[in-house]
From TrEMBL:
Residues 8-157 form the N-acetyltransferase domain. One of its GO terms (molecular function) is aralkylamine N-acetyltransferase activity. PANTHER family: GLUCOSAMINE 6-PHOSPHATE N-ACETYLTRANSFERASE (PTHR13355). It catalyses: D-glucosamine 6-phosphate + acetyl-CoA = N-acetyl-D-glucosamine 6-phosphate + CoA + H(+). GO terms for biological process: UDP-N-acetylglucosamine biosynthetic process. Pathway: Nucleotide-sugar biosynthesis; UDP-N-acetyl-alpha-D-glucosamine biosynthesis; N-acetyl-alpha-D-glucosamine 1-phosphate from alpha-D-glucosamine 6-phosphate (route I): step 1/2. Belongs to the acetyltransferase family. GNA1 subfamily. This is Glucosamine 6-phosphate N-acetyltransferase. It is an enzyme of class 2 (transferase).
C-alpha cells in the first residue's frame, strides 16, 4: 500500500496556490495566460458549485493538490461529480487534469492522488469513475486500478 512521503499531504486547491498549480499543470498541457484574478475566480466558482447526492448537497468540483514538506505544490488533479438521469439519477466521477511536477514523478504521488480522488467520488456515491488519457498513460492508470473501456473522441474549434 503506497503512502505519502514524510511531510507530504493532500488538500483542496486554495486561491494561494495560483503560481504553483499553474506551474505544475505545464507538464500536462498548455495552460495559457491565466492571471491570478482568473485563477481565484475559478477556485471560488469550484467552491460554490454543488451537486445533490442523496439527501446531501456536496461539492461538484473537487480540485486537489499534494504539497511537499516545505509546503510547495508538487501534484494536482480533480474529480468532478456529475449527476445524471440514468441509473436512477446516478452520480459519475470524472477524473481530470492530473499532473505531477517533473522532479517529483516516480514517487507514487500520481497513484496516491488517483486513489484519493477515486475514493472521494465513490464515498460521494458515484457508481463509476471515468477518465480520458493518452495511450502512453494506460499502464499508469491500470496500476491505479482502472481498466481500458470505450474510445475517447473529441470535437474542437
Ligand atoms: N506508463 C506505465 N506505467 C507508469 C507510467 C506510464 N506512463 N507512469 C507511471 N507508471 C507506473 C510507475 O512505474 C508505478 O509503478 P510501480 O508501482 O510498479 O512502481 C505506478 O505507475 C505509479 O506511478 P507514480 O509514481 O504514482 O507516477 P507519477 O507520480 O510519476 O505520476 C503521471 C504519473 C501522472 C502520469 C505523471 O507522470 C505526469 O504528471 N505526467 C505528465 C502529465 C500527464 O500525462 N497526466 C495525465 C493526464 S490524463 C488525465 O488527466 C485524466
Amino acid at each position: 500500500m503506497a503512502v505519502l512521503p514524510p511531510g507530504y499531504s493532500i488538500r483542496r486547491i486554495e486561491p494561494r496556490d495560483y503560481e504553483e498549480v499553474v506551474e505544475t499543470l505545464k507538464v500536462l498541457t498548455v495552460v495559457g495566460d491565466v492571471t491570478r484574478a482568473k485563477f481565484e475566480e475559478t477556485v471560488e466558482f469550484w467552491n460554490n458549485s454543488t451537486v445533490k447526492a442523496g439527501n446531501a448537497e456536496i461539492r461538484a468540483y473537487n480540485p486537489h493538490v499534494i504539497v511537499n514538506a516545505e509546503g510547495r505544490v508538487v501534484a494536482t488533479g480533480t474529480v468532478l461529480i456529475e449527476r445524471k438521469i440514468i441509473r436512477n439519477c446516478g452520480l459519475v466521477g470524472h477524473v481530470e487534469d492530473i499532473a505531477v511536477a517533473k522532479d517529483q514523478q516516480g514517487k507514487q504521488l500520481g497513484l496516491l492522488l488517483i486513489q484519493y480522488l477515486t475514493r472521494l467520488a465513490h464515498e460521494a456515491g458515484c457508481y463509476k469513475v471515468i477518465l480520458d488519457c493518452d495511450e502512453k498513460n494506460v499502464g499508469f492508470y491500470e496500476k491505479c486500478g482502472y481498466r481500458r473501456c470505450g474510445v475517447e473522441m473529441d470535437h474542437r474549434l
